[in-house]
Amino acid sequence: MKEPRIVQATAADxxxxxxxxxxxxxxxFASVDQDAYDAWVASGRSxxxxxxxxxxxxxxxxxxxxxxxxxxxxxxxxTGAGPTQMVRCAARDCLNLRQDNLQLVRRGPxxxxxxxxxxxxx
Length: 122
What we know:
By secondary structure, this protein is an alpha+beta fold. The chain has one domain. It contains three helices and eight strands, in the order E-E-E-H-E-E-E-H-E-E-H. The chain has helices at residues 34-42, 74-79, 118-121; strands at 6-10, 16-21, 29-33, 50-53, 59-63, 72-73, 85-89, 102-106. It has a three-stranded antiparallel beta sheet. Strands 4-5-6 form a three-stranded antiparallel beta sheet. The longest helix is centred in the first third of the chain and has 9 residues, at 34-42.
C-alpha cells in the first residue's frame, strides 16, 4: 500500500502544522501540530490514517495500532485520553487534529450537586 503524502505547512495562527493524507482518500488531509506529529513518528505509530464514518453523520480519523484489527481514534492517542474520557473536536472538524481543537470530556453523566442522604432529609 502506498505511503500517505505528508505536507509541512503553517497554520493561520503562524504555528507549524503537518498535513497527513487520509489512506484510501487521495487529496483528503488531516492536520496535526508539528510537535505532535514529531512525537507520533518517534513513537513508531502508523501514519496510515483512515476516515471512519460513525453512521450518525459524524466521522473520526482512526488508525490500526501495531497492525491490529481494532481501530483507535487518532485524537485519543494524540491527547492520551483515558478510559473514562471522550475526545471531541471543538470546531466540529474531525480532520483538524490540532491540540487547540481536541477537547477531553468525561464520559457518563455530569456530576450533579450533592443530594441529601435519607437521614439528612428527615
